[in-house]
Amino acid sequence: MDHDAADAASNDDIRASFGVSEANLRRAQPADAAALALLGGATFLESYARDHPGDALIRHVQAQHSPAFYAQMLADPACATWVLETDLGAPVGYALLTKPDLGCETGADDLELKRLYLLRGWQAGGWGRRLLAAVEAEAATRGAGRLLLCVSADNATAQRFYWRHGYDDVGRQHMFGMGGRAYHGLIWAKRLGGDPETPPAILTRSVAPEPAGQWPRRWA
Ligand SMILES: CC(C)(COP(=O)(O)OP(=O)(O)OC[C@H]1O[C@@H](n2cnc3c(N)ncnc32)[C@H](O)[C@@H]1OP(=O)(O)O)[C@@H](O)C(=O)NCCC(=O)NCCS
Fold first, then answer.
1. Is the beta carbon of 211 within 6 A of some atom in ligand 1?
2. What is the distance in A from the centroid of ligand 1 to the CA of 126?
3. What is the pLDDT of residue 84?
4. Is it the case that residue 80 has pLDDT exceeding 70?
5. What are phi and psi of 116, to 5 degrees?
6. Taking the CB of residue 191, how many other CB atoms lie within 10 A of it?
7. What is the pLDDT of residue 19?
8. What are the Cα distances from residue 19, in Å, to 12, 16, 32, 99, 121?
9. Structural domains in the chain plus CATH codes
10. Is the pLDDT of residue 196 over 80?
11. How far is the CA of 180 from the centre of ligand 1 (A)?
12. Handedness of CA 133, 135, 137, 140 (dihedral sign)
C-alpha cells in the first residue's frame, strides 16, 4: 500500500471513530462571532497544546480568539469569513481572508489567508480543500493576484496541504513568541488566475515535492 492509500485508510478509521457525518460550509455572519471565538480557541488549543506552555496558550486565545476580535473581522468589509458546521449547527471549521499583515513586503493586489482551521475529527475529509477553494474564489473575485499565508515552520501537515494546492515559500517571518519561546512562520503564496503553465518566477519551485514519508522538509 502506498503512503496516500495508507493515509486515506487511517483517515477513514479516524472519521468512523468520531462518527463524523456531513457538514455545511457557509459565509459567516456578524451573529457568528461567539461561535467563531469558541471554535478559534478550540482549534488553536488542539493544534498547539502538544508543545506550547498552557498559560501562554490561554493568554494568546484570550487576545486573538475573543468574540470582539471576530466581531471586528465580521464587520470589516475587507475581510471574509467562512464557517463549517455539522448538520446540527455545531461549528467545526473556519477560514478567514484579510488584507495582508505579514512580515514581508506585499503588493496592492495581495490578500492573506489569515486562518484555516478544522477540528481534528473533520480533518482529512476534503473540507480543508473546500474551504481553501472558497477563499481562493473570493480572493480572485476581489481582484487579488496573489493569496499569501503564514504556516508554522513546525506544521508539516499544513505545509504539505498547501504545497499540494500550489502554494510555495516566498520568505519567512517570526510569527509569535509564547512562553519565552520563539515560533517561526513561513510565508507562502499562490498566484491566482493567470496561466498555470507559466508561473511567475517567485513561485517557481526549485525542488520537486517530496513524498509523504520525507516530510517535514528541512528549511535553511
Ligand atoms: C491543514 C488543514 C486545514 C487541511 O484541511 P483538511 O480538511 O485536513 O484537508 P483535506 O482533507 O482537504 O486534505 C488533506 C488530506 O486528506 C486527504 N483526503 C481528502 N479527502 C479525503 C477523503 N475523503 N478520505 C481520505 N482522505 C482524504 C487528501 O488527499 C489530503 O492528503 P494530503 O495531506 O496527502 O494532501 C487541516 O488539516 C487543519 O485544520 N489542520 C489543523 C490546523 C492547521 O494546521 N491549520 C493550518 C494553519 S496555517
1. no
2. 6
3. 97
4. yes
5. -150, 105
6. 19
7. 47
8. 10, 5, 25, 37, 8
9. 23-214 (3.40.630.30)
10. no
11. 30
12. negative
